[in-house]
Structure prediction request, 435 residues.
Amino acid sequence: MGEAPKRVAIADLGRHVGETVEIRGWLYNRRSSGKISFLIVRDGTGVVQGVMVRGEVPDAAWETYDVLTQESSLIVEGTVREDARSPGGVELTLHAVTPVQISTDYPIGPKEHGSAFLLDHRHLWLRSKRPWHVLRVRDGLIFAIREFLHGRGFLCLDSPILTQAVGEEAGTLFETEYFDLGTASLAQTGQLYVEAGCMAFGKVYCFGPTFRAEKSKTRRHLTEFWMLEPEMAWYDWEDNISLQEELVVHLIEYALANHGDDLEALERDLASLEAVKPPFPRLSYDEAVDVLRSAGSGIEWGQDFGGEDQTLLTAEFDRPVFVHSFPRVAKAFYMKQHPDRSDLVLCNDLFAPEGFGEIIGGSQREDDHDRLIECIREESLPLAAYDWYLELRKFGSVPHSGFGLGLERTVAWICGLPHLREAIPFPRLINRLSP
RNA sequence: UGGGGAGUAGCUCAACUGGCAGAGCGCCGCGCUGUUAACGCGGUGGUUGCAGGUUCGAAUCCUGCCUCCCCAGCCA
Prediction:
């Protein structure tokens, strides 16, 4: 026997043409045509087809074909060869096949399945082509977000998950007992904490899971989702919008440059992503309502945009659309009042094209102590819960702004997914807590 | 929380007006030296979501319950 072959990743096979290598992975599928058989092997980095010809491989290897079932783990050894007939352009002439564990009755087959069945088997579904590509894009976007922000002097300031203060709306909180301190709730947002952070570090962000107990059953909602929340001291609402635009452009460029293969495998229309270039249209709420009315919407001034309105609005443009200066009645208490219109606040939403809806909500924050107290009272929120937050306005208050970007909605948009449940590894929905 | 749709083999779905429970995939067996969700032939596989009712007879009609899917509201 010669030396043990080098163990390589399938993703790197192109650099090992002509060499004999070892791959450790799982059987994705198999096909046979009598005296020639094909083992489609995946190892987490990619998929490669192994070929065995009867009489040209040891009988022991040849006979493993009959034993190996879908998703059995195995170790194969073979010679890397370029071959246009093979998907991926590279295939493996097998010399040895060693089963590690034989899988029996793997539930996910090559034919179609329903979404409920697949979600029940999410722990296994992750191995399938579609989730595999989606979650690679998700990982890439997380990396690109952090890269973008650190490149601009941001500091990551993690906000707590267990909180006492209410972030936005009471009534949609997940609650739990917290020792002698009463009820704790899972954070709906880290915003109040990054507001504290930006006064210490200038530009900060938090990025983690957030929780909403809304009983909504739509393709645009999860009960647990990841939100990026940058917060910047000395930024006004227009600086805020410019940063959002740069970030979104960066994410699209990153995805196209680094995940083109994934997006193609997902059959994403790349042309519509390539069209996402600055500047994005910026409409005031009043202008957006006019556009919607002339497009046939029955929206009344003061209402927030529904799903249909968002689709209608973005259909007018080929790139994401900013809408700013919303009515105060439609927005959260902490947003700063418009200097010329007391019925508006200095905020913005960003709507993704092609009906993917709102991916960002942001605003300049109310920085005046007394005015902020008025806002809290107007919303009938418990003033005591905001004591530390109010102190930020007593010790060197400055204009500041920030926004929240929904990661899953961004992933869904970039990957072209019809439902958010595919944009997160283990989705939490109103009727789903497992796996 | 409202509106709509659907539960039949392990999976995806058929079954006309109430009249023998079916197909493809999977799985098992046989065949095939380049397959691409391989293919051909044969076989395996059912408490028709649960409980009750109508009927000579119910997957099918009626009542209640459960579950899932889609849409709306709310939001990221």
Remarks:
- The longest helix of chain A spans residues 129-150.
- Residues 279 and 364 of chain A are 20 Å apart (CA to CA).
- Chain A has a mean pLDDT of 92.
- Chain A has two domains: 6-101, 122-422.
